[in-house]
């Protein structure tokens, strides 16, 4: 071949190759392409973008900057490889949720999912909170999803739960921002149930119920770097309400700050209750600022005094450690451990606890529990 043609041929070949790669990359990105000018329900546009992203290996669904009204949406799998959901805009829920469902935005049956972006899920919950609603509706619900990362997004004013993680494995939630007024009912920040290997970190949660709640079947959970308040604290439970609940075990909560919350570290079970187990639980490095119940185990939990009668919990609580709790209690009692008479708590340890009320030492009340205070100079230092 004439050498004069060799260089141009190579250049053209490279340009075509790069252009093809660029086109291929672009075809992996599927934005929601509906005008937000009239704020009509964008459900179909969302589902169309998801369908394309789900069918593409490495497909990415993008919600561009702007405001979108959405009644509800199910993003179902399985998908062809990892799927990404990038939220850069603001999605607003309709005033009235779709009847007979417990979600607003629902991801289900996926093997690899990433949810990220600087955008906001606005649950539009203010009018809903005034109504008597029994359905626990989650703004963002995941079920039967494996290998998921949720990062950076904002959740605002959910109608009930902000995030619900159910029957999931290998979940990482990092740097999320969750906000609702302190008087908004049942607006748990993140609720986890029947899920394994969940990591929640470096997030700010201000809400009207538990900042994080762990239901039955929560195992191998690591929570760290959470700023919580207002809210009801970081809770395990409530447990023992339903038959055949699964064991809760291997829970670690570290380096969290709770401010003006109803509770700090709490374990709650119904009394009476169905059988269950909660074990191998550690709360460590917790800063407490004006928290009403800094350390609480309550096996007589009865919300709104609507329990079917007084009785003892059948949930066994054992191997629980409270380590390095420092700060101010909102009541003279800084530690309350109220366990079942028929199933006393076993192996409860407090180490490095220093809690004061109005500058004075707090006290600890304990019943039906094997409680040890390890080390000197603890406040409180013993059960009364």
Automatic annotation (TrEMBL):
What residue range is the signal peptide? 1-25
Q: Catalytic center at which residues?
A: 232
The UniProt GO MF terms for this protein read: polygalacturonase activity
**Highest taxon above the source species:** Eukaryota
Q: Which Gene3D superfamilies match?
A: Single-stranded right-handed beta-helix, Pectin lyase-like
Give a yes or no for keyword Zinc in this entry.
no
- Gene Ontology BP annotations: carbohydrate metabolic process; cell wall organization
Compartment(s) of residence: Secreted, Cell wall
DNA damage recorded as keyword: no
Q: Which PANTHER family match?
A: PTHR31375
Family the UniProt entry places it in: Belongs to the glycosyl hydrolase 28 family.
Q: Please report the name of this protein according to its UniProt entry.
A: Polygalacturonase
């Amino acid at each position: 071949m004439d050498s004069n043609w060799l260089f141009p041929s190579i250049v053209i070949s490279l340009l075509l190759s790069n252009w093809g790669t660029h086109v291929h990359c672009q075809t992996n990105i599927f934005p929601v392409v509906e005008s937000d000018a009239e704020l009509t329900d964008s459900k179909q546009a969302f589902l169309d973008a998801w369908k394309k992203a789900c069918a593409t290996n490495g497909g990415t669904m993008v919600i561009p900057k702007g405001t979108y009204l959405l009644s509800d949406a199910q993003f179902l799998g399985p998908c062809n490889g990892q799927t990404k959901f990038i939220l850069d805009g603001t999605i607003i829920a309709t005033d009235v949720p779709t009847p007979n469902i417990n979600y607003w935005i629902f991801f289900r049956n996926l093997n690899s999912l990433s949810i990220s972006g600087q955008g906001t899920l606005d649950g539009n919950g203010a009018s809903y909170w005034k109504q008597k609603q029994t359905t626990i509706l989650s703004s963002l619900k995941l079920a039967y999803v494996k290998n998921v990362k949720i990062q950076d997004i904002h959740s605002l004013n959910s109608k009930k739960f902000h995030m619900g993680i159910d029957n999931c494995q290998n979940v990482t939630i990092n740097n999320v921002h969750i906000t609702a007024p302190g008087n908004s009912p049942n607006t748990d920040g993140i609720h986890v149930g029947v899920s394994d290997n969940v990591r929640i970190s470096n997030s700010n949660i201000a809400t009207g119920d538990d900042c994080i709640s762990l239901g039955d079947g929560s195992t191998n959970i690591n929570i760290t770097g959470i700023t919580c308040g207002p809210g009801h604290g970081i809770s395990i439970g409530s447990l023992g309400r339903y038959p055949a609940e699964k064991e809760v075990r291997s829970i670690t909560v570290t380096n969290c700050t709770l401010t003006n919350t109803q509770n700090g570290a709490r374990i709650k079970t119904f009394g009476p209750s169905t059988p269950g187990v909660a074990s191998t639980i550690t709360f460590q490095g917790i800063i407490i600022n004006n928290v009403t119940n800094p350390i609480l185990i309550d096996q007589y939990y009865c919300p709104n005094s609507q329990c079917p009668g007084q009785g003892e919990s059948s949930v066994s609580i054992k191997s629980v450690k409270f380590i390095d709790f420092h700060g101010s209690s909102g009541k003279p009692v800084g530690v309350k451990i109220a366990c079942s008479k028929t199933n006393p708590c076993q192996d409860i340890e407090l180490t490095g606890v220093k809690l004061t009320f109005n500058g004075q030492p707090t006290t600890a009340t304990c019943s039906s529990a094997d409680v040890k205070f390890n080390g000197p100079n603890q406040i409180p230092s013993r059960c009364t």
